[in-house]
Amino acid sequence: MKIGIDKIGFYAPHLYVDMNKLAIARDVEPAKFTIGIGQEEMAFAPMTQDTVTLAANAALNILDEADKQKIDFVIFGTETGIDSSKASAVYVHDLLGINPDARSIEMKQACYAATAAIQMAKGHIALNPESKVLVLASDIARYGLRTGGEATQGAGAVAMLISADPKILALEEKSAYHTSDVMDFWRPTYTDKAIVDGKLSNEQYIEFFAKVWEQYKVKTDASFSDFEAICFHLPYTKMGQKALKPLLPETDEVTQNRLLENNEASKTYNKRIGNIYTGSLYLSLLSLLETKEDLEEGARIGLFSYGSGAVGEFFSGILQPGFKGALQPTRHKEILDSRKEIDVAEYEERFNNTLPTDGSTLELEKEDDPSSIYLAGIKDHMRQYVNDNR
Ligand code: HMG
């Protein structure tokens, strides 16, 4: 039985910062951010958007009523969840009106959690072929103003429907994974900003890719030439190629050129959003599928997932007949193009203006946030969510 991605969509908040302007404000050569790091715009979430609403808005765009009845498992991957106890999946389950006879959980391992969620969904569908699983990957990446990581922040979510006989990508059985206790990036529960050793994190990412690729080759007998493209977790868009390039000499020139060309296509949306942690790899997959026009049915796509701390996995999937008809490039372009730019002063002010953590009541104005699902305030320590479509 084929199991894989039947539907996929993303959502990004309606505000962004221009990376050229951020560079000037930080007294940095703009080319460092736009070429050296590879980011053009950085999505910024207003107070009315948190990880729950971003995920719910992403899922709203892909699900129909029949899907909502079939979904019996909602898995939410995030490292910037809103509660240490209750799963964000439960809020999304309610906001979207999903079949009540369902499981809903949250998973965590830095940027890797959505990959773990997909693997769990695959196992669930193997046992229950009629069911559909909603996998959500949603995060707001914050390092802090004027920090080394600032240029690699972002906000957004990817929603995926995993099912038997998927319309887009059938996942192959074998995959290679690796865990090692590394302090390259982490976020203690008392802070909303990540702590990172940037240089170590880059090194570990590159090392993990080499390790899982080596393991994958042993398990499958595959080589780079078997792949049309390889999508990477993209904390910033230059990262994937930094891991890929050192290994390319093991393949022929035609394959090298193809993988590098497709790597460019796989950065398209990420360049305009930034790091969305758990969703970044899947945003990269969407970029590839929706912007590379000559991709063919039957092509094999590799996926490298990395979550600091650290866990890495390499796995693969085959593009399904008619996959293009199941994508939404026009809607996704519209989400990106209709956003509003905020200047650096407004970004800094908004960055410092966070939700209360002392239980006080807050009512939020939706203002120009066009999202159907948003946070309307906090009362009695409870976030007040609204779905305008209900
Ligand atoms: P930095 O020290 O600001 O930058 O940190 P740099 O000095 O390393 O320069 C970056 C690149 O810009 C270099 O290119 C420079 O040469 C180039 P590279 O050598 O890397 O190819 N450059 C220029 N290019 C053109 N014109 C110029 C120019 N000047 C310099 N004028 C760093 C960068 C990414 C480390 C920092 O932003 C950071 O700490 N970010 C957060 C951590 C991170 O993203 N790590 C990535 C791997 S870990 C991961 O992916 C997991 C993660 O997503 C978390 C999770 O799992 O949950 C982060």
TrEMBL record:
This is Hydroxymethylglutaryl-CoA synthase. The active site is at E79 (proton donor/acceptor), C111 (acyl-thioester intermediate), H233 (proton donor/acceptor). Belongs to the thiolase-like superfamily. HMG-CoA synthase family. GO terms for molecular function: hydroxymethylglutaryl-CoA synthase activity. It is an enzyme of class 2 (transferase). Keywords: Acyltransferase, Transferase. GO terms for biological process: acetyl-CoA metabolic process. Residues 2-165 form the Hydroxymethylglutaryl-coenzyme A synthase N-terminal domain. Its EC number is 2.3.3.10. The lineage of its organism: Bacteria, Bacillati, Bacillota, Bacilli, Bacillales. The keyword NAD does not apply. NCBIfam families: HMG-CoA-S_prok. InterPro entries: HMG_CoA_synt_C_dom, HMG_CoA_synth_N, HMG_CoA_synthase_prok, Thiolase-like. It comes from Oceanobacillus jordanicus. (3S)-3-hydroxy-3-methylglutaryl-CoA binds at Y143, K242, N275.
